[in-house]
Amino acid sequence: MVMTGTPPGGPRPSTKAVPLPHQFPSATAVPDSGEGSLARKVAAARAAMVARLEDNGDLRPGPVRQALLALPREVLMPQAYVRRSQPDETPPHWDRLDWSTPEDRQELLAVLYSGQSVLIQHDGEPLLGRMPAPRSGGRITSMSSTVGMTADLLHQLDLQPGHRVLDIGTGAAMTAAIACWICGDGGVVTLDRDQHGSPQVPADTSSTAAKPHPPTNHAPSGSPSTICGRAWYGPG
Fold first, then answer.
1. Strands of 93-98's sheet, edge to edge?
2. Which of 97, 159, 192, 197 could form a disulfide with 108 if both were Cys (CB 3.0 to 4.6 A apart)?
C-alpha cells in the first residue's frame, strides 16, 4: 500500500523534467566474461522491457517511464529464484540466481527484465548472507509485483518532486525506488513487517546512493530511526 502527500507549505514547484536525484552504483561495471559488453546487454534488456510495457498500454511517457529506464533492477534485486520443477511436482525445486556469479547473469537478466514477478525470498529467509544452494520444498514468501502493475499504480498516484510517500509492505522495494527517483528520497518512508526482509542493496546507502534501503518492522513498537530519509522501526 502506498500513501502520498505534500510537504507543509504545498508542493515544491518544478518547471523542469524530473531529474535523477541519485546515481545508482552500476552493476554493469562488473566485468563480463561473455561476448559483448554487459553494460549494453543490461541497457538493451531495460529498454526492451519498457517497450513491451508501452506496447501493452501499461506505460506512458513521463517520470515513471524515465525511472524504469534508469533504475538497475540487478542492483535492487541481485538475487532471485527460478522454479525448476513442474507445477504439480512435489516437493518443488528452485535454483537461486546471483548477479555476482557470471554464469547466472544471462538468465537472471531475462528474469529481472521480463516484467513479471521476481521471486526473491524462500521460506522467510534473510535476504542477505544466504547459502548459494538450490532449494527444495517450502515456499516462496516474497516476490516483486509485476512491472505493469507497479507502473499503473504510480501513474494513478501522479507523483511529483517533493511529494511525501509512505510505502507499507515494501518487499522488493521497486515501488519505493521509483518513488525515490521521482520525489527525492528524503520524503519516502518504507515499512515492512518481515523481520528477515533485509535489503539486498548495500546497507551504506549514504555512500553508495543505492536507493531505496528498505527497512523492516522488527517489533510492533520500537524507536524510529532514519536511514537516508526513510524510517525503520527496531526494538528498543
1. 135-136, 93-98, 79-83, 119-122, 140-143
2. 97
